[in-house]
Amino acid sequence: MPYPKIALRGAVVAVTGGARGIGKATADLFAARGAVVCVGDLDPADAADALVVDVTSRESFGAFVGTVMDRYGRIDILINNAGVMPLGDFLSENDAISRTTLDVNVWGLIQGMRAVMPHMIERGRGHVVNVASMAGKLVVPGLAVYNASKFAAVGLSAAVREEYRSTGVSVSAVLPSAVRTRLASGVPLGHGMPTVDAADVARAIVGSVRSRRAEITVPRYLAGWDLVNATAPEPVMRLGRKLIGDRRALTSVQDDVRAAYEQTIAAQARQ
């Protein structure tokens, strides 16, 4: 059964983590297409009219959704975009940082879908985008818990999509490769690693409203990764990893550039 169409012009869109990076690019693109956009962020200082939302808190997410519902009476599209990406050796990572990664990247999606989807189901239409990552398909040394969170995000999105496929509400997972945002600050990008801009991811997110595809990789050619991963011999995969320098998150991080972002995560973990 096809999902009910959602016209972008006039659609009410809620975006978490919308003050910068992928979230801001997405909010701006939806607004340019005529949508009514409500931005939520833990630190909304950089976004005019943004609402404060802690996606790890059921109460905070509920208050964010409640405000949007009070203003506009509905949410047509939810973009679960808020995320964190600490780097470092798995055994040395602080427990609080690991918990925060799972809380934001997994529980943030759970809280958002549980807060918004009942209203969508009641109306018989709606669309949810969970911003995951290609790190939910392939492992990267130095990102173990982040990998775990994004594998969970991909599986959660697929499971919820299937469970509610007959309600008129769709769930799509968007899986970017390395993105030039502050999450990747201090990490050498390129050099064989597919790298995209926030605007590229925003176009994929907005495009999902029309396609309603289950998974959308950015760039699109990475959609064949599952087949490659399943069929390529392990020695070949290891050679490929070596050629692109897949350990750079452990060995080549510019700590002075990265420090400000890591401090932001640590502050969130202490809350």
What labels describe this entry?
alpha/beta; 271 residues; 9 helices; globular; single chain; 14% strand; two-stranded parallel sheet; 7-stranded parallel sheet; 9 strands
SSE diagram, text form:
Blueprint lengths: L11 E5 L4 H12 L3 E6 L9 E2 L5 H15 L4 E4 L14 H29 L2 E6 L12 H20 L5 E8 L1 E2 L15 E2 L1 H14 L3 E4 L6 H7 L2 H11 L3 H4 L3 H16 L1
Parallel strand pairs: 1-2, 1-4, 2-3, 4-5, 5-6, 6-9, 7-8
Helix pairs in contact: 1-5, 2-3, 3-4, 3-9
Keywords: Oxidoreductase
Pfam families: adh_short (PF00106)
Family: Belongs to the short-chain dehydrogenases/reductases (SDR) family.
How would you describe the overall organization of this protein?
This is Short chain dehydrogenase/reductase. One of its GO terms (molecular function) is oxidoreductase activity, acting on the CH-OH group of donors, NAD or NADP as acceptor. The chain has helices spanning 21-32, 58-72, 95-123, 144-163, 198-211, 225-231, 234-244, 248-251, 255-270, and strands at 12-16, 36-41, 51-52, 77-80, 126-131, 169-176, 178-179, 195-196, 215-218. With 271 residues, the protein is α/β, with parallel strands linked by helices. The strands form two sheets. The chain has a seven-stranded parallel sheet, with helices on both faces.
